[in-house]
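REQUEST FORM: STRUCTURE PREDICTION
Request ID: SP-0412
Submitted by: Lab K.M.
Chain count: 1
Length (residues): 208
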Amino acid sequence: MNNFQLTKLLRNQVRRYRIAATELLLNELPKEHRSRAIVILRTNAEFQVFDDITGTVCVCQRCKRIPSSTAVARCVAAQAFCRASQSNRTLLTKNEVTRFFPTLFRHGLPAGYYVDTSTKTPRLGLLRVDIHLSPVSRIWQRSLDIIEKHRQQSEFRKLILADQFEITWLVVTESKANAIRHLVGKQLRELPVDAQSVPSLLNQLTPL
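STATUS: Completed
RESULT:
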C-alpha cells in the first residue's frame, strides 16, 4: 500500500467515525503500515490530531476548533463498539446504504446507523450513546418512541418483522446495560433493543 492509498483509507475511516481514537484506527491496519499512518495523520493538512480530556489521542478532519468532549465521547464510543473483537459491525456511509439496504436510501439515513454482517442476512442497527447519563426509564421510553417511529415507515417495518433491525444503547456501566436488557426481557413481545457497556465513556463524561 503506497502513501496515496494509505491516506485515502485513513481519510475514509476518519470521515466514517467523524472523530476516532488513533489507536483503534491504527489497529485496523496491517502492522507494517502503522508507523507510516501515524506520520500521515500528524503531518497531512487534512487531519487534526489532538488529546481528549482523558489523554486519549484522537483524530478528526481539520477544523477551527477542537470537538467538544461530548462529541468525542459519542464518536469514540461508536468506534469502540464497531471495532470490538469478533465484531462484524460498521457505521454506514451513504454509499453502503445503497449496497446493504437499497430501499432505505434517503437523505440523512446513515447518521447513527450501522450494519451487522455477522449473519447471512445483514442487520440494520441504530446506535445511541448515553452521553447525558440518562435514567434507565428515560432510555427505555426513548427506545419505544424510536421503534414506533420506524414502524410507521413501511421499509423499516419490513426489516423489524424480518428481525433485521435493532437499537443498541452504549452506556457507561455493565449494570446499566443489564438493567436495560432486563426491561427488554420483561416485555410480552420481542423488542429489538440491546445495550452494551463502554467503560471508556465513564472517564470521558465524568473525568477526574
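NOTES: The first strand starts at residue 19 and ends at 21.
Reviewed by: T.R.
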